[in-house]
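Homework-ish question, so no full write-ups if that breaks the rules, but can someone show me the predicted structure for this set?
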Amino acid sequence: NAGVTQTPKFRILKIGQSMTLQCTQDMNHNYMYWYRQDPGMGLKLIYYSVGAGITDKGEVPNGYNVSRSTTEDFPLRLELAAPSQTSVYFCAGSPGQSSETRFGSGTRLTVV
Amino acid sequence: GEDVEQSLFLSVREGDSSVINCTYTDSSSTYLYWYKQEPGAGLQLLTYIFSNMDMKQDQRLTVLLNKKDKHLSLRIADTQTGDSAIYFCADDSGGYQKVTFGTGTKLQVIP
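A: Not a homework solution, just the prediction itself:
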């Protein structure tokens, strides 16, 4: 069991470029989440999904899109990267009880 | 929305006890958590407490919950240099098993 796997670990983007942050889990968790972590701000929820085919906005969804075509995968898409999206991104999965939520190791994204 | 607040920084000497505090606004949480994040790493669930409990002890860690004051604390006994990290308080009041995080407290342990 690898748990929650995120790729890439690091990425530098130019303003206006697009990219997809990958997240996959092998725990058969229904619930998946994307957070961003900014210094001194804690983690903010971007999007979440309660099952395949179902996604919903979190606290800070602007500038991002997600899809959930399978239970395992929950990619996060940035269409037009902006410097304000420089952050560390964490994906997480949960079987339906928040005490079992597990996080990936994060993707550090810099937009220049 | 829910607010979870923590002080940003705590410095202690090795061997002393550390107490990290957290206040929250939403009383509908089922679980409250403490996560640990070491430099450059992801989040590790350290411990959690069910909302109908007052205290939970797990080896060097003691979690205290005061529901009336909406206050959560984490006490680390005999703090070691390996405990240096950022500690996040969190709860699941957001529904759909979402975890809402505090701003994090950076614990510095001085040898």
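Now go work out the reasoning yourself. Hint: The interface with chain A takes residues 1, 4, 8, 30-31, 33, 41-43, 45, 48, 88, 92, 94, 96-104 of chain B (CB under 8 Å).
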